[in-house]
Every structure is written in C-alpha cells, then in structure tokens.
Amino acid sequence: MDAQGFTEHGRRHANLVGSIAYNVLSYLGHEERVCEVAAVAGFLHDIGNVVSRADHGQTGALIAYDLLKDADITYADLALVLSAVGNHEEQYGQSVSPVSAAVILADKSDVHRSRVRKNASIAFDIHDRVNYAVEASFLRVDAEAHTLTLELTIDTEISQVLEYFEIFLDRMIMCRRAAETLGCSFRITVNDVPVL
C-alpha cells in the first residue's frame, strides 16, 4: 500500500478498526462473543490488500477463511467474520449483520492525517489533502439515543468540508445503512457543527 501511495492500511488501522468495531457493539449492548467476533473481523478486514487493492474485501475473506478455519471458532462466528471482511467496501459491500455493520462504521470513521504517507502531495491529491486536514475523528455511540455520530475536526485552511463529502459521500451512505442495521441513526459533526 505504501509503494502504491495509498493511505496507511497497516497495524495501526487494523487494530483501531477492530477496537472500534468491538466498542460499537459493546456500547449497543451486544453479547461479548459477538463483540469479540467484530474485533477479529475488524482486525482482518483489509488483509486482502496483500494480494490486490481491487476487490480486497472479497480476497480478504478467502485469506481470513484460511487463517481461521482450523482455529477454535464456530462455523457461525466464522461466517460472521468472513461476511464482514467481504462486505466492508462501498463498491459492493452491504451491512449483512451487526458485525459487518460495526466493521463498516469502524473502517470508514478512521480518517486522520496520521494515515497520510510522508511523501504525499496534499496540494495535488484530494484524498491525501482531506485525510491530512482531519485533525481528529471519533465515532460516538449513544445507545440511549440510538445514534452513531462521526465527530470530525477538520482544518479548513487545508481542505474545505465540501471536499470531505466529495470523496467520501459513498462511504457516508454506507455508514448510514450500517447504522440502520444496528437500529441507529448516523450523524456527522464537523468542527462541532452538525452537518448530517
């Protein structure tokens, strides 16, 4: 991913997505086993990138199967992991379970300048510029209000808010649908202002 100039998709991203997916389901009251399955799926969700960026979710599901088939995991939990890994990309994915919904929300909420490669040109690449402009991102779970709010702090001197939605609109639609799978509404605040 580094050689191709893509944003960081390594251990930091994998660990964070696993942790956020776990927390989303935990805060919403799902049983511990389901939360742990979400953490595993979140950690493995981008493993297909070792083969190719294209269709990496589906490739990743096949790799995850090989990694987990002999582990101490039930077939039902294995299916939850594989379907979450295989369905996390907005080009073809769907939130087919609470686990996959949590992985989608966790993955798409990891927007931050720490993901931008050191040799990136924020002047020319809108993806790098938008990621670099995001100083903080946090997915807030309010179980009582049934809301999942992506809270962003964006340096508008680097990138305007509109650029965020220009490149991430499909992701935000996917997040809205994932939140609905969890019985919640999806919201976004930018610099403490509700925008969705």
From TrEMBL:
**What InterPro entries would the database entry show?**
HD/PDEase_dom (IPR003607), HD_domain (IPR006674)
Q: Which residues form the HD domain?
A: 21-108
Residue stretches spanning the membrane: none
Pfam families in the record: HD
Name of the protein in question: HD domain-containing protein
- Organism of this sequence: Egibacter rhizosphaerae
> The organism sits in which domain of life?
Bacteria
